[in-house]
Amino acid sequence: MQLKDKFISLKINKVVQNFSSNSFAQAITLGIQIVSVPLLLTVFGMQLYGEWVLLSSIPAYLTFSNLGITQIAGNELALAEAKGDAKQFSLVLRNAFLLTCTLVFGVSVVFLLCIWLLNPQALLNIKSLEKNEVAWILSALVMYTAISLVGGIFMAVLRGKGKYAQGTFLANISRGVEFLIVISAAWWSRSLLVMALSYLCLRIIITFLWVYSASKYEPNLLASLRMPSYNKHLIRRLALPSISSMGFPLGNAINIQGINIIIGVVFGATTLAAFNVYRVIANMVKQLVNTVSHSFYPEITFAYGKKDSLKLRFYIKKSQFLSIAIAVSCFLGLLILEEFILKLWTQNEIPYDFFLCNLLNLSAVIYATWYSNYTASLAINKHMFQSLLYLVLAILTIVIFYSLTFIFESLVIISMSLIIIEFVMYINSSKRIFIK
Question: What parts of the sequence cross the membrane (predicted)?
């Protein structure tokens, strides 16, 4: 009995560390969202703020250029560490870094060419900014995103070394400092271009900090990166789970940035600004669910690598229970307090839409019923079907929303579509037996 109690205590302590770091990450995210919306509305106004949301949505698609290599390589690094295989750890790190750089910077060049050869100002219906200013803002955000993706490899090293909590803390304290400096620059300059360039310069500095931190836990880090040789067998083994892992983030991008673009073009920047605020509140619930699920993520990987089925069952069941409990509690709280929160947060700039807001919040509750199962599958590279399903549903949502928007001229359609996506994912998740 004492051994069992000690075993559970060790499991909980490790998860608590991860949960604490993830909670800190969500606190940073919530703080940024709470401060940025009213501040940017004050500095730029509804029209220009809506255009910032629209412009910042475009470079987000660059995040798919690494084909999920960083995520899956992080899993492989953790599995190699769990088995004590230093040679495999170095091999995965080297190939992941080279492949990420090749893909990310190659696609970035294509993005930049499109920005300067086309006219994004006209294509995106931007009215408050000049043509060249739009191009420079987009270019800065593209380069910011590319550097962030490469930097993700060094965060994967920390997770692979069992330092998930430390890596998460470092990444988010960096993000918090970055935001404070950027928002100060925006307040001082009243310029979206200065804001975008500030993001880029700070990200370069932060990436060097990540390299230094990763090298403390992996002394052979720089030596591994200096050996530019691809391992074809490893690349092939990583390819399928890497590409399929992009289904979820790509589906999210379609649901978030894709919908933002359609709303901005069809309804205008003012409507986009209001909808974005409604969805930020609903996404806060999802972020809390993510905090719980991701706290168990690294431990699931290590337990799987050590073939410890007892730990696997423990982590997955606890993750599912906590995720659902948190989501339902948040939904009930927002049902009562959201109107007050919205008025206080936006200084009465954004009107409260009871039906639309609660449909978005309901989609977050349904999301909680299946996301922990997906996270567990992703942690051991067995997520292919779920990722593909989510991507297909997201694409169908965009097609349906864009088609029906011109008929009904209502944002309720998109909220209903999001609920349908979450419900189908829940049905799929409930029918899948993750561990026998």
Answer: 21-46, 52-74, 95-118, 134-157, 169-188, 194-213, 257-278, 321-346, 352-372, 384-404, 410-427
Where residue 356 falls (left for φ over 0; alpha for ψ -120 to 50; beta otherwise) is alpha
CA distance 227 to 314: 40
Region class of 307: left (phi > 0), else alpha (psi between -120 and 50), else beta = left
The overall pTM is greater than 0.90: no
At 98-146, the pLDDT tens digits run 888 888 888 899 999 999 998 888 888 888 888 899 999 999 999 999 9
Which helix (H) or strand (E) covers residue 289, if one does? helix 269-305
d(CA 163, CA 156): 9
Kindly write down the DSSP assignment for every residue of 37-62, as one continuous string: HHHHHHHHHHHHHHHHHHHHHSGGGG
Q: Which long-range contacts (CB under 8 A, 24 or more apart) does 214-223 make?
A: 214/154, 214/155, 214/157, 214/158, 217/157, 217/158, 217/161, 217/163, 218/89, 218/93, 218/157, 218/161, 220/90, 221/93, 221/154, 221/157
CA–CA separation, 60 and 255 (whole Å): 12
Rg (the chain; Cα; Å) = 22
Q: How many CB atoms lie within 10 A of CB 296?
A: 30
The tokens of 184 are what? Answer: 């100060």
344-to-39, 62, 220, 330, 394 alpha-carbon distances in Å:
13, 35, 51, 18, 33
Task: Report the candidate in 49, 134, 9, 20 with the shortest Cα–Cα distance to residue 347.
Answer: 49
Q: Among 169, 172, 167, which Cα is nearest to 154's?
A: 167
Instruction: Tell me the C-alpha distance between 381 and 99, whole Å.
Output: 18
Residue reference for tokens 């080279």 = 98
CB 295 within 8 A of CB 22: yes
At 222-243, the pLDDT tens digits run: 777 766 566 777 777 766 667 6
Domain boundaries, the chain: 1-16+246-436, 58-236
User: Do the beta carbons of residue 60 and residue 257 sit within 8 Å?
Assistant: yes
User: Please, are residues 422 and 324 in contact by the beta-carbon 8 Å criterion?
Assistant: no
At residue 344, the pLDDT reads 86
pLDDT of residue 434: 47
Residue numbers in the chain where pLDDT is lower than 50: 1, 3-10, 433-436
pLDDT at 433: 46
Give the three-class secondary structure for 161. coil
CB-based contact 80:88 (threshold 8 Å): yes
What is the phi/psi pair of residue 128, to 5°? -100, -5
How many angstroms separate the CA atoms of 387 and 372, rounded? 13
